[in-house]
Amino acid sequence: MSKKLIIFGFFIFTSIAFFAQRNRVDYLPSFDKRKIHYGFYLGLNQNDFKYSLKNNSNIQGTTIAIDATPGFNVGLIADLRLHKNLNLRLEPGLMTNTKQITFGNNTLGSGIFTNGDIREVNSTYLHVPLLFKFSTDRLKNIRPYIIGGVSYNYNFSSNEDGDDNSQGQFRTTTHNYMYEVGVGIDIYLYYFKFSPSIRGVFALPSELQYDNDVNSPYTSQINYFATRGVFLTFAFE
């Protein structure tokens, strides 16, 4: 599943929900008057890495290709009403995904990348975002919103202090920080509120853990290496 497919699916779904709900009786009319409420979410993610190489004439032939597979998100929601159109949300959960990194055309003299050298990065994060949710006024049983904030991420699979690329392991940092922005729509149903959203997620610092060898052909040429991705989230509150 590509990022474009996730985005397209979200907008098709919300468009159908918008037209299906607009003429119905109002459900949960007092839901948004609660000071605090809770929920949970499920979702999909498509994460890869953004990277840049150092400006060094000795490594100009180095290439890095990254292939990502869809991952899964699950977590809890705590929502604090600050204003009729503004909420503060804490959404701790787990996020998993897998990326395949292929190194090629190395020019450091060893020639080990000639046919491609592959590293698979399996990541499981404790994802803890703190988000502001800005909502429009309610229109019958729907309420569009935008959402954004920052998150702390603990990578259980970072291998930060373990074997490096000389032993076939690509390492990333354990502690990471990201920001995320997105749009969504609240859909008020008979028993609960259903909220699909789509979000972009971007790491702030570089997540690369350099190899022990300062001249490593795998990591010495990398200047910046960090997560970027798209989340499709379904919240139940």
**Cα distance spanning the termini:** 27 Å
Main pleated-sheet profile: 9 strands, antiparallel
Characterize the overall form.
elongated
CATH topology: Porin
Task: Return the CATH architecture.
Answer: Beta Barrel
Q: How many separate helices?
A: 1
The number of distinct β-strands equals: 9
In CATH's first tier, which class applies? Mainly Beta
Quick gist of this model?
By secondary structure, the protein is mostly beta strands. Helix content is 8%, strand content 54%.
Describe the structure.
It is a single chain. The chain has one domain: Porin (Beta Barrel), CATH 2.40.160. It is built from one helix and nine strands. Helix content is 8%, strand content 54%. Strands 1, 2, 3, 4, 5, 6, 7, 8 and 9 form a nine-stranded antiparallel beta sheet that branches. The protein has one helix spanning 3-21, and strands at 36-53, 63-83, 86-90, 93-104, 117-135, 142-155, 175-188, 193-203, 222-236.
